[in-house]
């Protein structure tokens, strides 16, 4: 009887053990249970370039999918590209910003891949995000793909794929291509990474003066509901008859939004805004722009911009309490600055800004903001070395010229590449 009972118990135990083993074999490994790899250990390097954060969200979803497949993966920003000891694949997710330009964390990727040849051959794949409503659809992703193809040490794994408007079907097609080529079965939560829906709000027009000689207006709006925002955030304006928002960098002064708009003859949104009347209602959305907020504890802050790029600085002048603040602004003539001058004078009067300098291209000795920086190269070098933050807002052409001058200053005076200052948050950009 005892022998029979023991046999039955052993049989039950073996059945339970077998069932447990089978369940463990069938069980999918959760991404949360996979240990994240360092850049030294990882086989798959996933880099992302993003301006608003949407592309980073996409990259994170794929990162989790690779982890669930048991892969050693390391994820980072484009401008943090480095040398990777055990990497076999480089996967890049990137958006395009402005007129075919890089997002804020992808400005130096081209230089980095040319300076740092891979330790081992790297198979690369580029996924470009953009919108066909812009003529430069996915242009920066196209550029990245060409750069990698032309640099020694990189070998194409799959062709460049373009994703329009974060389309779920486009992402699904790319994922299918990846899985067929790699032999994997990566799964990502497609429903969770669809395009972020911005909350639409109503804003009442408080002031909209006549445009100045540069066809520019300084518009004041107030949200009808209480909303959290700050200078440097983006206002997505949806003009009547359009479904695509146009993004404007804004100032916050009190509870009001100030934005500077240049009216273009063929600009649907700029004409819409400049024609608004007091008490009109504007339908728009507010987007946080974390990478371009004022840094209150910086040793000093240099506000560098041209044209309507001065808009967020008007609020930052008001916001500043402690940091020595300096503005360098580029425009056509001194009268072009008149609509902004009261803000700058008030900030100086109340001790929130030390001074401002104007670079005028059509008056006196023609000058641009980068020329002033070059003239003050010793002061610029000392400021950067002390931890000062340089903020750039305006045209992409201005940004490129300023960064070129700053790069020369940091190399000549400090023996450091400008990328090191960008990586530690001393150079912030919001150009278009």
Descriptors for this entry?
432 residues, alpha/beta, Rossmann fold, Elongation Factor Tu (Ef-tu), domain 3, 3 domains, seven-stranded antiparallel β-sheet, six-stranded parallel β-sheet, 12 helices, 18 strands, globular, disordered N terminus
Description:
Helices cover 33% and strands 24% of the residues. With 432 residues, it is an alpha/beta fold. The protein has three domains: 31-193, Rossmann fold (3-Layer(aba) Sandwich); 204-289, Elongation Factor Tu (Ef-tu), domain 3 (Beta Barrel), CATH 2.40.30; 294-431, Nucleotide-binding domain of ferredoxin-NADP reductase (FNR) module (Rossmann fold, 3-Layer(aba) Sandwich). A seven-stranded antiparallel β-sheet has the order 10-9-13-7-8-12-11. Strands 1, 2, 3, 4, 5 and 6 form a six-stranded parallel β-sheet that branches. β4, α4 and β5 (154-156) form a beta-alpha-beta unit. 38% of the residues are buried.
Average pLDDT value?
A: 87
The share of residues in helices is 25-40%
What do we call the CATH homologous superfamily of the largest domain?
A: Flavodoxin domain
| Name of the level-1 CATH class of the largest domain | Alpha Beta
Number of strands: 18
CA radius of gyration: 26 Å
């Amino acid at each position: 009887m005892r022998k029979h009972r023991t046999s039955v118990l052993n049989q039950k135990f073996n059945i339970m053990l077998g069932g447990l083993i089978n369940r463990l074999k069938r069980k999918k490994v959760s991404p949360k249970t996979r240990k994240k790899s360092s850049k030294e250990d990882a086989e798959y390097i996933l880099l992302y370039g993003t301006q608003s954060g949407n592309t980073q969200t996409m990259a994170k979803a794929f990162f989790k999918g690779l982890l669930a497949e048991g892969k050693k993966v390391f994820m980072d920003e484009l401008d943090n590209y480095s040398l990777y000891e055990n990497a076999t694949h480089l996967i890049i997710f990137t958006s395009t910003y402005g007129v075919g330009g890089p997002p804020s964390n992808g400005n130096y990727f081209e230089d980095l891949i040319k300076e740092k040849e891979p330790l081992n051959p790297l198979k690369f794949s580029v996924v470009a995000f953009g919108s066909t409503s812009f003529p430069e659809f996915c242009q920066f992703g196209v550029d990245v793909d060409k750069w990698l193809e032309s640099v020694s040490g990189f070998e194409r794994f799959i062709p460049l794929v373009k994703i329009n408007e974060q389309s779920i079907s486009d992402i699904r097609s790319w994922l299918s291509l990846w899985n067929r080529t790699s032999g994997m079965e990566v799964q990502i939560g497609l429903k969770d990474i669809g395009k972020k829906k911005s909350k639409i709000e109503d804003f009442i027009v408080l002031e909209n003066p006549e445009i100045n000689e540069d066809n520019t207006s300084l518009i004041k709006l107030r949200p009808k509901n209480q909303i959290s925002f700050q200078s440097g955030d983006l206002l997505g304006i949806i003009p009547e008859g359009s479904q695509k928002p146009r993004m404007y960098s804004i100032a916050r002064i009190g509870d009001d939004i100030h934005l500077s708009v240049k009216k273009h003859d063929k600009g649907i949104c700029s004409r819409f805004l400049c024609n608004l009347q007091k008490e009109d209602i504007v339908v728009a959305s507010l987007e946080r722009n974390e990478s371009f907020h004022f840094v209150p504890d910086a040793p000093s802050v240099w506000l560098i911009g041209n044209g309507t790029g001065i808009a967020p600085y008007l609020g930052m002048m008001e916001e500043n309490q402690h940091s020595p603040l300096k503005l360098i602004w580029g425009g056509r003539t001194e009268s072009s600055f008149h609509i902004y001058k009261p803000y700058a004078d008030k900030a100086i009067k109340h001790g929130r800004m030390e001074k401002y300098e104007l670079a005028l291209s059509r008056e006196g000795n023609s000058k641009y903001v980068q020329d002033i920086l070059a003239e003050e190269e010793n002061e610029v070098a000392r400021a950067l070395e002390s931890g000062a933050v340089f903020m750039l807002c305006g045209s992409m052409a201005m940004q490129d010229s300023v960064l070129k001058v700053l790069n020369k200053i940091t190399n000549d005076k400090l023996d450091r590449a400008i990328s090191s200052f960008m990586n530690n948050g001393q150079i912030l950009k919001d150009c278009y």
